[in-house]
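call fold target=Roadblock/LAMTOR2 domain-containing protein
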Amino acid sequence: MSYEDLISHILTTTDKVNKIIVFDLTGRPVAYTEGTETNQSEGMALVNCLLDPAKIMTKLFIDNDFFICVQGIEKTFTGTNIKDRSRVIVARLDDSHVIVLFGQSTGKGSFTYELQHSLELRSQGLLISQLAEQQQQQRGIPDAGTEVFDTQRLNDVVRGDQVLVNLK
């Protein structure tokens, strides 16, 4: 499942997160939310901080802001924006990519929990987009790439309270 699906899932299921970036281990941004500004040098600095256990605390520039970041456990770190103390980031290593969440610290919930929980759902095939795809397959609804399909069968399967996405 793509990182775009993970981003969509996180943004749909939590109000705390407003930006997400996924970097590969060379620092190249491979997926990110609209309005996010980053580049490979920022990504590489972030990856180096995350992978170097000697860097307990570091100042990191990302998405046009400076953050003071502290190492966590299990290849994670958290950071607080220097200008706006309520703006935070959380980064975590997932296989060969680093996922970074940005948001506001106000309200209930933990960024680290949201990220870890979403990654677990992704590995189990339980993201919102994955569940929708499974439901379509179980109901026999043709995928978006199908050119010709039986509209009567589609009407029999789809109730009025269901929403179909990406049918062209």
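return ok
The chain is about 35% helix and 30% strand. The first helix runs from residue 3 to 13.
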